[in-house]
Amino acid sequence: MKPWETVEKEDVPEVGEVVLARRDSEYVLRVRGQTLMSSRQHGSEAAMADAGCAHLVGTQKARVLVGGLGFGFTVRAVLDRLEPSARVVVAELLPSVVTWNRGILAPLAKAPLEDSRVTVVEGDVGRLMRKQSGAFDAILLDVDNGPSALTHPDNESLYDITGVSVAYGALRPKGTLVVWSAGPSPAFVKRLEDVGFTVQVLKPAAHGTKGPRHTLFVAQRIGKGPASVPSREGKRPGRGR
Ligand SMILES: C[S@@+](CC[C@H](N)C(=O)[O-])C[C@H]1O[C@@H](n2cnc3c(N)ncnc32)[C@H](O)[C@@H]1O
C-alpha cells in the first residue's frame, strides 16, 4: 500500500505535533500521533447536522455553533440544512486547521468557510460557550474521539458536569446539543440528564451504510431555567483560560 505523505507539520505549544497527511485523495489529521479525522469517514458528520438542525429547517435567523472545524464536513452539512438568514459560528483550536481549510482542504467540503453565514473563532469552544449565554439553537461538538478519548487534556472540562452545564446555558430553550464519540458512554448520558437535558443516543455509520458505527449523544434543552448541577458531583473548576 502507498505510504502516507506528510503535507503539513507543526509543533503547537500545549498541544504537540499536528500533522496533515495525504494518501491519494484521502487526508488525515493527526495530533501527537493520534488520528483525529480522516476524509474517508464522514458519514456521522452529516448525521450530526441532521440531529442538531432537524428542528431548524425553515427557521429564520437560526444560530448554530460548531466545534471544531476538522475538514469542514460538519460545517458544510449544517449550512446545507439552514436558511440564508442563519448564522454559523465555528470554533477551532488550531489556527493551522483554519488556514488549511481556506487552502488545500477547501475542496473536500465545498469550501464552507467561504459561505457568508460563517464566522470562524480561533480558540477553545468551551471558552466561547462560557461567554455566550442562551445564544444558540444548536451546538455540535466534535473535538475529540469521545468524552473519554480526549485529543487535548484540557478538553476534559467540556464533558464534566461543569462543561455540560455550560453547554446547557449556551443554548436557547429547546436548543439541541450533539456530541460526537467513537463509542458509547453511559456515564456521559447520565451527566447530560443530570443537568436537565433529555438524551437520545444514535449510532450512525462512519462511512456509507455498512461497517463501523460512531456514537452521537443528542441532548435537548427543555426548560428556560438554568442547568441543575447535582450537589453530589459539586462544582468543578473550569479550565481557567
Ligand atoms: C475530529 S475533528 C472534527 C471533524 C469535523 N467534524 C469535520 O467535519 O471534519 C476535531 C477538530 O476539533 C478541534 N478541536 C479540538 N479541541 C478543540 C477545542 N477545545 N475547541 C475547538 N476546537 C477543538 C481539532 O483541532 C480538530 O480540528
Automatic annotation (TrEMBL):
Q: Where on the tree of life does the source sit, at the highest rank?
A: Bacteria
> GO biological process annotations for this chain's record?
polyamine biosynthetic process
InterPro entries per the UniProt record, alphabetical: SAM-dependent_MTases_sf
What does the UniProt keyword field contain? Polyamine biosynthesis
Q: Tell me which SUPFAM superfamilies the record gives.
A: S-adenosyl-L-methionine-dependent methyltransferases
Name used for this protein in its record: Spermidine synthase
**Native source species:** Corallococcus terminator
